[in-house]
TrEMBL record:
This is Integrase catalytic domain-containing protein. One of its GO terms (biological process) is DNA biosynthetic process. Pfam families: Peptidase_A17 (PF05380).
């Protein structure tokens, strides 16, 4: 990643591009979308104000002078069509501006076609597993992370947008100054910049640097420490390290009241009520009880199709494998539908429809399930990993438990560490072979 830091410490990055000489004109389409947007904004004054505040008032875009248009020599411009998603129920960002980097120019190419995505390596399972090993846990958001990273001025003409203040007013052209949502390279630039910050500031903020390198998924920090003092140091270092590049933290949540209260009112004033469960990387966590839980929201349908079955399975998100047996049962049912060669919109046959309806109705029982987040004990003399593996005609799988033994042998703790139960392929397989696969799976953890 090509980058520099300005006098204020903010990072200035370049979008990785292919050959952009094939980029065509896009102003006409952007103008058409602007007219559609204005008709909507003119009916909602609050949304119009929020739209302006989102970028102009925050200094995240700059006006383009009329003489600096796309006809200038050796200048390639791209006009991003955009629209707003108004979310009045949100406590922080009530309006999200969506930029369409996929809109084609008259050459058939879009901005995203000419941007390199870069490589983003973030493993939710690894992050969540480390999270479970910390006695004092916390989660934080990096506020407007993408928009705290500046784009090289030489590339900002690729991020032009148009706005106007009245139905008959001439559109005003702006250039976005920061990394922009929904452009192909945005996730890579944001994550790579955070990693660069961690490396640049490692000597001053060693604890925060380590967390930024391994416990961040996009703009979510999911981490903790074994002692309260270390957790407080980490909290302070994260705040100060991110401040050096213009970033701020908000939405603090923690299983520790002392740690939660260490953050300022401004930093956690919009935080989720800690009496309720919060979402961390798609998993529901209740900080006050310090356990994971599952919320099941399945719409009631009189008759299911194969597409509806797949939709239900997609709602059962479980990166830690904690409800693997439940998800496997659903996937095995889906396999049966494939074997019956049902079309996507074909209703389930009566012979199996009742089985599926019973399964869906039983999913509500998952809401009673509570799984401790913290895997360890305060002090232990011995730590063991206990692996179990088995197979059947329908599936094979493995589960690993973490077993802690204290100095007083009477005090022990065993917690589920990881569980994996993949469904079988259609081809018949020898049960002994499947048991071997299950054993290999257990050993791999």
């Amino acid at each position: 990643m090509t980058h520099t830091r300005n006098e204020a410490g903010r990072y200035i990055v370049q979008m990785p591009t292919k050959d952009i000489t094939g980029l065509g004109h896009s102003k006409g389409l952007a103008m058409k979308r602007l007219d559609q947007l204005w008709r909507r904004l003119s009916k909602d004054k609050q949304m119009e104000i929020l739209y302006r505040e989102q970028y102009l008032d925050l200094g995240h875009m700059e006006k383009v002078e009329e003489h600096l248009d796309e006809t200038s020599a050796n200048k390639f411009c791209y006009y991003l069509p955009h629209h707003g998603v108004f979310r009045p129920d949100k406590t922080t960002t009530k309006l999200r501006v969506v930029f369409n980097g996929l809109a084609s120019t008259n050459s058939g190419l879009s901005l995203n076609d000419l941007l390199l995505k870069g490589e983003v390596k973030e493993d939710i399972f690894e992050i969540m597993t480390r999270f479970r090993k910390q006695k004092y846990a916390f989660t934080i958001d990096i506020q407007m992370m993408f928009r705290q990273i500046l784009i090289d001025p030489a590339q900002r003409d690729l991020l032009r947008i148009m706005l106007k203040t009245g139905a008959n007013d001439k559109p005003v052209i702006y250039r976005l100054k920061t990394v922009t949502y929904l452009t192909s390279s945005a996730p890579f630039l944001a994550i790579r910049t955070l990693k660069q910050l961690a490396m640049d500031e490692a000597s001053r903020f060693p604890l925060a640097s380590k967390v930024a390198l391994q416990d961040v998924y996009m703009d979510d920090v999911v981490s903790g420490a074994q002692t309260l003092d270390t957790a407080r140091q980490l909290q302070c270092q994260l705040q100060n390290m991110l401040k050096t590049c213009g970033m701020k933290l908000h939405k603090w949540n923690s299983n520790s009241k002392e740690l939660f209260n260490s953050s300022t009112d401004q930093e956690h004033s919009f935080s989720t009520n800690t009496e309720s469960a919060i979402k961390i990387l798609g998993v529901s966590w209740k900080p006050t009880g310090d356990y994971f839980m599952f919320k099941v929201s399945i719409p009631s349908i009189a008759s299911y199709t194969k597409r509806d079955v797949l939709s239900v399975i997609a709602r059962l998100y479980d990166p830690l494998g904690l409800i693997g047996p439940v998800i496997s049962k659903a996937k095995i049912f889906l396999q049966k539908l494939w074997l019956r060669k049902l079309n996507w919109e074909e209703c389930l046959p009566e012979a199996i429809a009742s089985d599926w309806l019973n399964f869906v109705s039983s999913l509500k029982a998952l809401e009673e399930l509570k799984i401790d987040r913290y895997l360890l004990t305060d002090s232990y003399e011995k730590l063991m990993l206990l692996g179990y593996a088995d197979a059947s005609e329908s599936a094979y799988g493995a589960v690993v438990y973490m077993h802690c033994v204290k100095e007083d042998v009477s005090e022990q703790r065993t917690a589920c560490y990881i569980k994996r139960i993949p469904s079988l392929p259609f081809a018949d397989s020898c049960e002994k072979y499947l048991k071997l696969l299950a054993g290999i799976m257990a050993a791999s953890y």
